């Protein structure tokens, strides 16, 4: 009895410590659950879009899957996820149809003045395209594109390869469009050649259901 009486304060202290530890554990578990639930929230910035996915499948009503800018709540990972990407991008074709230059700062006039007739163009190194009258032309291209349909875009295109797909489409567009015009038309007309390239490249993107639309295509140099 004396031993039990002597042990009572120790037992009480142990019980209090266990109760405190249990409360701390409860609070920690609740905190983890809240953190887990809120981890599904993601903010979509202006100029960005995306879709929600559940176990890898796109979620949402048909035609309304695309996310709008702002805070978007959803199931946390790994149940759900939010894929976000830029909706507007710019790609440039500076070397695909352009000859090599000893110095990149050369102007077209300097290139012409310094051209060596005894040194022919080398396929694979010097970029060029064949015109409708059989001449060889050189040009540079700048294009703006938007992801118009995020669902089709993610289904058809690897997210990291959007620019590469547009570059390929533009290259095919250049080849098809320039093959139907003479060199003089390509050089002298300011807007029409780029517009034809845009149409041909858009056909390529539409055929693969890419969800991408070319907004503007220009030829800064030709």
What does this molecule look like?
With 222 residues, this protein is an alpha+beta fold. 40% of the residues lie in helices and 23% in strands. The chain is built from 6 helices and 10 strands. The protein has helices spanning 2-38, 108-113, 150-156, 162-178, 183-188, 192-207; strands at residues 42-44, 48-54, 57-59, 70-72, 80-86, 88-93, 129-130, 136-137, 140-147, 212-221. The strands form 4 sheets. Strands 3-2-5 form a 3-stranded antiparallel sheet, with no helix packed on it. A 3-stranded antiparallel sheet has the order 6-9-10, with helices on one face. Helix 4 crosses helix 6 (192-207). The radius of gyration is 31 Å and the shape is elongated. The model has no long low-confidence stretch (mean pLDDT 82).
Report how far apart the termini are: 105 Å
Order of helices and strands: HEEEEEEHEEEHHHHE
What is the averaged pLDDT score? 82
The helicity comes to 40-55%
Major β-sheet, in short? 3 strands, antiparallel
Number of strands: 10
Q: What spatial order of strands do you see in the largest sheet?
A: 3-2-5
Strand content: 15-25%
Number of helices: 6
Low-confidence stretches: none
Name the overall outline.
elongated
Structural class: alpha+beta
What is the radius of gyration computed over CA atoms, rounded to a whole number of angstroms?
31 Å
């Amino acid at each position: 009895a004396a031993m039990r009486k002597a042990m009572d304060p120790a037992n009480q202290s142990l019980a209090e410590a266990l109760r405190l530890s249990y409360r701390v554990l409860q609070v920690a578990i609740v905190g983890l659950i809240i953190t887990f639930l809120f981890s599904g929230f993601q903010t979509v910035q202006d100029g960005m879009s995306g879709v929600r996915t559940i176990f890898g499948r796109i979620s949402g009503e048909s035609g309304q899957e695309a996310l709008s800018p702002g805070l978007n709540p959803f199931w946390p990972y790994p149940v759900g996820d939010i894929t976000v990407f830029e909706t507007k991008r710019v790609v440039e074709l500076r070397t695909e149809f352009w000859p090599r230059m000893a110095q990149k700062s050369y102007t077209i006039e300097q290139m012409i003045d310094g051209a060596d007739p005894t040194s022919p163009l080398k396929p694979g190194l010097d970029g060029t395209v064949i015109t409708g009258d059989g001449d060889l032309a050189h040009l540079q291209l700048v294009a703006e594109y938007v992801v118009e349909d995020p669902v089709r875009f993610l289904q058809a295109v690897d997210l990291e390869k959007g620019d590469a797909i547009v570059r390929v489409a533009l290259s095919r567009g250049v080849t098809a469009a320039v093959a139907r015009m003479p060199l003089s038309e390509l050089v002298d007309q300011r807007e029409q050649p780029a517009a034809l390239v845009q149409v041909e490249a858009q056909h390529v993107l539409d055929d693969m259901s890419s969800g991408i639309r070319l907004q503007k295509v220009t030829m800064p140099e030709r």
